[in-house]
Amino acid sequence: MPDKVLISESDATLRDFLESILTSEGKTVESVDFQDFRHRLVESSECYAAVLWSSAHQLPEQLSSLRGRRPESEKWILFRLPGETVSDSHAKLFDSVLIQPFRAADLKAALKGEQLPPEDDTLAFMRAREKEFAQFRKKESQLREAQRHQQELERMKNTFLSLVSHELRTPLTIISGNLHVLKKLARKWDNEIATECVGAAFDGTTRLSKLVDELLRFTVSVPQSRDRWDMVLTLRRVVGELQPLADGRGLHVALDVKGPLEIEGDPSGLPDALLQLIENALIFNNPGGKVEITASLKNGGKFVSVAITDDGPGIENRELDKIFRPFYQVADVNTRTVEGLGIGLSLARRTIESHGGTLKLQSVVGLGTKAIVTLPVRSQLTIPLATTREVPQPPGEADSKELKAYAQELYEYLEAERVSRRHAEEQKRVLEQTFVETLVSLIRMVDPRVSGGTFQGERVLNYARAVARHLDPTLLSRPEFLYGLLLYDIGKIGVAESVLSKSGMLTDQERLSAQAHAEIGAELLTSVGVLRPAIDAVRSHHEKWDGTGYPDGLKGKEIPLLARIIAVVDSFDAMTVDRPYRQAMSLERARSCIIEDAGVSYDPEVVEAFCRAWNEIESLVRKAESSESPPILIQAES
After folding, report:
1. Same-fold call for 226-385 versus 426-637
2. Band of the pLDDT at 324, cuts 50, 70, 90?
3. Of 41, 377, 430, 574, which is most buried by a Cβ count within 10 Å?
4. What is the mean pLDDT of residues 217-239?
């Protein structure tokens, strides 16, 4: 009578519990991963006393035929979680079905083929708690996915704003230049209608240019330079620029500053922030009201404090924090009387805080609002201090040249910009190629396994390209496709070599250490902007279609497409290459294993594309064995 028991259980605690019970019953325990578990049942003729299945792994459709080929004396026992359902056709193939958690007496009765002991109150309570924990784990996974989705949307938003801002600037510059010419010509024609129309168009272009400038400052809000300058002169200049706005609304501006107040900071960013605050005080004030601006040293001369006070309608307390959110406006978008995107205050606070300062608002409805800016005299910026001490002055309005000549110069400037852009694109291509070469060198250092003269990264990249051509050819032109395939195992740089090359079964601690490489790799890429699109593939390439993978337990199409492709081609490569703990499989056997695991470990659509690309993949393997595979850099460049 055989005394060996075959189990496949990924949960270390449950596995230890099973082994302790089986050992006490005089059984020899053989614990394997689910892939080897299925291979043993399919190919081995060895008879086991019992075969313990876990419902954490999706039961294959061909389970009935598999059971029919196994010895009748084997006892098949299934573990399932509370709330999980097992089809009647599958349930009848098992001698016993145990609901987790279960008692030692339950497993012993199942091994002997006896009826399970009745459920007591303690066991019922534990199963109810386990069901709740399962729901919590599912919600936690959904929250992590929502967080990643939100971060991706934030990145896409910033990219969109940046692209739109830059793309709008070129046509706006052309339109403004030509409107200058038309405005002058309309005056020469002495045509009031033409003058009025051109003037209205020019005013609209000016407003649109201002909005584009706001978007550009919002998407690139980091300080650009660092210099010493006088806050008093800056405030006087800003007030001078805004005086026409104040006069147009009948507002009185009182500037009370005690100087000189010399500070360090970005001489373009900080004045823009102050201008935004003073402009808001003028725009949102009552006609005929007053705006007071004061500035003085605080805390023994270590800080400069600027206060901007208006006597406008004020802001309700519940709105004070919200108005610093990008694109938020107190007034309804359909009824508001003030134009703008609602990013001025958000940008002002971000600029001030990047200099180590603070921006606070105090407001009383019906009495007015006070903005208090506190800035350190010595800059917190790490940008080297500039040598110049000149205060930046606004450009003069007088244009001494003829407007037509100005338009011609503008056209020539745009042509020069196009040439410069083409040159920049060529430089970018060279830099990208150098970057890929560096990545390849790094990959070969991280995982220098060679088979047939090719590295693992070369083989997997070739297989993935073949699959992608039959699944979604547009993937081949996306940067994340190349970067994801080059870097999906980069996290192994943080795993001990003794773990990666161990020939025996890993301990629980070693298994956790090895599995951590997916999270380590994703974390490494977060600081490299150009590689961020590949983060999801790097983090999720060990997720499984049935949700039993790691690190996040994603399921089905929650797993990024590139990660699903990597899962198939990386597994195929692992099966067909000699490892310290086993010899390589034949190509046909590896292909059969991939097909059997479709819908369990792998995306069925990816497996189908893998099968359609089989002739190409088989050819690639033969070339690799004969060292005829093209270098990885040629693949990357293509």
Report:
1. no
2. low
3. 41
4. 72
> Do 338 and 284 touch, CB atoms closer than 8 A?
yes
Of 26, 48, 27, which Cα lies nearest the Cα of 37?
48
Q: Nearest to residue 310, comparing CAs of 252, 238, 239, 232?
A: 252
Half-sphere exposure of 405 (CA within 13 A, CB side): 4
- 189's enclosing H/E stretch is helix 121-189
Q: How is 306-355 classified by DSSP, letter by letter?
A: EEEEE-SS---HHHHTGGGSTT--SS-TTT-SS-S-S-HHHHHHHHHHHT
Confidence of residue 459 (pLDDT cuts 50, 70, 90): confident
Kindly give the residue spans of alpha helices, DSSP state H, lying in 86-120: 88-91, 104-112
DSSP string over 479-495? HHHHHHHHHTTGGGGGS
Measured CA angle at 428 (ends 425, 432), to 5 deg: 140
Is domain 4-118 classified as CATH 3.40.50.2300? Answer: yes
Q: Pick the closest to residue 310 from 340, 331, 287, 290 (CA basis).
A: 290
Contacts 24+ apart (CB under 8 A), 563-566: 563/484, 563/488, 563/536, 563/537, 563/539, 564/602, 564/603, 564/606, 565/464, 565/467, 565/468, 565/471, 565/475, 565/606, 566/460, 566/464, 566/484, 566/485, 566/488, 566/537, 566/541
Architecture of domain 426-637: Orthogonal Bundle (1.10)
The per-type count for the chain, helices as H runs and strands as E runs, is 23, 14
What confidence tens digit (pLDDT) does each residue in 126-138 have? 777 877 877 787 7
CA distance 69 to 557: 34
- In angstroms, rounded to a whole number, what is the distance separating the alpha carbons of residues 241 and 233? 12
Distance of alpha carbon 504 from alpha carbon 50, whole angstroms: 24
Most confident of 23-32, 81-90, 412-421, 528-537: 23-32
Q: What is the mean pLDDT of residues 144-148?
A: 82
Q: How far apart are CA 381 and CA 266, in angstroms?
A: 9
Least confident of 3-12, 42-51, 440-449, 488-497: 440-449
Strand (E) or helix (H) holding 96: strand 96-99
Say how far apart CA 160 and CA 343 lie, in whole Å.
15
552: burial class by Cβ within 10 Å (0-12, 13-18, 19+)?
A: buried
Q: Which residue has the higher pLDDT, 408 or 351?
A: 351
Residue pair 468/617 in contact (Cβ under 8 Å)? The answer is: no
Q: Around 213, how many Cα atoms within 13 Å sit in the side-chain half-sphere?
A: 11
The pTM of the whole model exceeds 0.85: no
Q: What is the CATH number of domain 226-385?
A: 3.30.565.10
pLDDT digit string, tens, across residues 174-216: 676 677 667 767 667 667 777 777 777 777 777 677 666 665 5
∠ Cα 88 1 79 (to 5°): 30
Q: 41 near 65, Cβ under 8 Å?
A: no
What is the percent of the chain where pLDDT is above 90?
7
